[in-house]
Amino acid sequence: MLDQQPAPLLCPETKTQPAVKGASKVAPLIAQTIKVACSNCNLRELCMPMGLTSAEMDRIEDVVASRRKIKRGTTLFRNGEKFTSLYAIRTGFFKTCVASEDGRDQVTGFQMAGEVIGLDGIVNDHHTCDAVALEDAEVCVMPFDRIEELSREVNALQRHVHKIMSREIVRENGVMLLLGSMRAEERLAAFLLNLVQRLHARGFSQHELVLRMTREEIGSYLGLKLETVSRTFSKFVDDGIIEVKQRHVRILSTDALREIVNTKMGG
Amino acid sequence: MLDQQPAPLLCPETKTQPAVKGASKVAPLIAQTIKVACSNCNLRELCMPMGLTSAEMDRIEDVVASRRKIKRGTTLFRNGEKFTSLYAIRTGFFKTCVASEDGRDQVTGFQMAGEVIGLDGIVNDHHTCDAVALEDAEVCVMPFDRIEELSREVNALQRHVHKIMSREIVRENGVMLLLGSMRAEERLAAFLLNLVQRLHARGFSQHELVLRMTREEIGSYLGLKLETVSRTFSKFVDDGIIEVKQRHVRILSTDALREIVNTKMGG
DNA sequence: CGACACCTTGAAGAGGTTCAAGAAATGTGG
DNA sequence: CCACATTTCTTGAACCTCTTCAAGGTGTCG
Hints:
The structure is a homodimer of 267-residue chains. Chain A is 36% helix and 22% strand. In chain A, strand 8 (242-245) and strand 9 (248-251) form a beta hairpin. The two termini of chain A are 20 Å apart. Chain A is of the alpha+beta class and 267 residues long. The first copy, chain A, folds into two domains: 25-176, Jelly Rolls (Sandwich), CATH 2.60.120.10; 183-266, Winged helix-like DNA-binding domain superfamily/Winged helix DNA-binding domain (Arc Repressor Mutant, subunit A, Orthogonal Bundle), CATH 1.10.10.
């Protein structure tokens, strides 16, 4: 229901998520124009269509114009900026958020390696949200006119682009269900399950995760205040469902979380 | 922010929305295979790319395989059904809704003439929501493989499809903002403004509208209970902002509604 | 006309927010 | 590397918005 999981799994073996500490503090902000080989990228199965001939594969690599590093706390793009490219996340973690005129803002999603951001910009040629790196990150820059050009020729790429957009629509449907009909505990449980599932699809543990965002950002995403998020974490700890040490979360009972999500309380 | 308005306007003159009464009671449910001429359709500017050569126009008409009539209360497609086509609404009014395992459901959108539904089905080849006609309706059936085929050849169509999907993503971002950070009055005000704006873009009044959905459906969309919707309508009436006679709504002060949306109460 | 769906309104209650204070972690500059 | 400033997190108590439960009204359709 809240799926944001790309179709194929990445690695069979279980990795441990690295600590939050700056991974590459000295990385320059400027765009790099190093030629990229998607065929060697270990995110290949996440962000590229499957079943390509090697000739097609070669062509698709042309789509990735360059890579770009984004330091934690800085933006990949901002509301109002001209739209030129989609971005495939290689490493790092992003949030996207929209703002209303009176200054409220709403986190609309958290994105991790292998996911694509920037789709919001297509319709008006300008971005309508901010994409902020929550940790040092690197993305593949994919100019959209190149994508369109090539997807006319490579059917699998065309289909792939359509699916990525459709997946985002379906994901947002799920978030609407969450925001429109769930209570605080259900929202947080759904959030944790979704995060850990996506991390697991990337080879990380099913039971442990490191939150890359603050309580306030979680709250914004879930339509709750940070205090409510904090209290709900505490309640889950009291109930023996999870352990929390700052941003480290260990899930003791996935089933309990699932039950919380699937139980309409008081019904 | 809540825009779901297709780029171009349709008719300059102002029409009056017809009453709810069944428009075409005797319409058969079966798909009709009448050849359709998009070039004559008065929704052309809403659902087709602009600036086509007449040769391209001819080709695009091939995308519309047939039309289909949907009686009020019945579904165009359902969660779980195989995805084959996108649908352009010719007449009528739809809601789309998703359901969770425990039986809750959430209205994810209301769609009117000139808008396209079915995008949710692309990613998994199956629909993930229901599309229900809230009044007798007619849609153009556009098989998706035809769309993909042709959008490889007609650049404007390719671009158009991408924009439609991106627009839906941006719309849902706006709904997330609404659900995540607005209070009841703000939500209802935003809802009314959005509806009337979209109707106006189709040549209807800026100040009058007929709701095609129940209070409960509005509530589901806005994350509120039907009683809250009803009470909020009453409050707007008391405040002299709108007049309500059942599903007839007359907006007395658009500015007041705008102010409600843009004012973070108590801040 | 009667059955049914839909809408309105009131009163009580619950869940989440707000305000406030303090603790823990993080980052910065000397 | 330590001290201090800052950000982030936790917890309590009062408050408020929205929900829940209930009853009655209105409109529609067979």
